[in-house]
Specification:
This protein is an alpha+beta fold and about 250 residues long. The chain has eight helices and four strands. It has a four-stranded mixed β-sheet, with helices on both faces. The N terminus and C terminus are likely disordered.
Length: about 250
Amino acid sequence: MTVVLAADLAVPTRVNRMSTSEPAKKKRGGKFVERLAAIRENYRMTRKVHRWVGWEMLGIFVVVSAVVAIPVGLFLNWPTALLISLPLGLLAAVAWFSRRAMNAAYASIEGQPGAAAAVIESMRGNWSVTPAVAVTKNSDLVSRVVGRCGVVLVSEGPSARVQHLLANERKKTARWLPEVPIFEIQVGTEPDQVRVAKLQRELTKLPKGLRPAEVNDIRRRLDAFSKRETPVPLPKGPLPKGGKIPKSMRG
């Protein structure tokens, strides 16, 4: 964007300046319209979950602006108070909306298979997710997460149905990586489970005892073990003449 503006300033004639700046203006205008559309869509989605979010934002804006403006106006002057309080009030309202929008987004995916894996994939940091390493016909599943805490098995589904899935995956992972810490988190709406909206916080609370290089090594080992457990499909029917195995099936 800065390069375009510099080029525009170097053009001597008005016609050339307009011809070179119009595409940039259209591009900037298109991005602005897209942002407005995204904000409007987020507001609609948030309002479905939090009906009074608009009034909440207005109330926060008024309260924060007044709390900041009154002492500044009394001790300094009112124009300065307005210049300071209005941006702070707007910032507080936007921060509140962002939090409400995030909660609404979590609420919209809660209960859907794969929601936990999707939330973890959006996390920052050295986290690696393998979704649905174990799945049942009832759409209960277990995803495997590798981070600086070790290996985390994250289940989705009722507690009574996912316990055996977690136990099987824990036993399998412990056989592959006996020296690595293994944690279990059940995601769901039952009292003893973690809600999707709180999953990131639960993961970040786990102790970080591994270095980034060790995390990468664990990830590679798990990938290798998973491929090793996948059996090579054998051809159906009798062997070819001579009883030799085709070269493509040899180890």
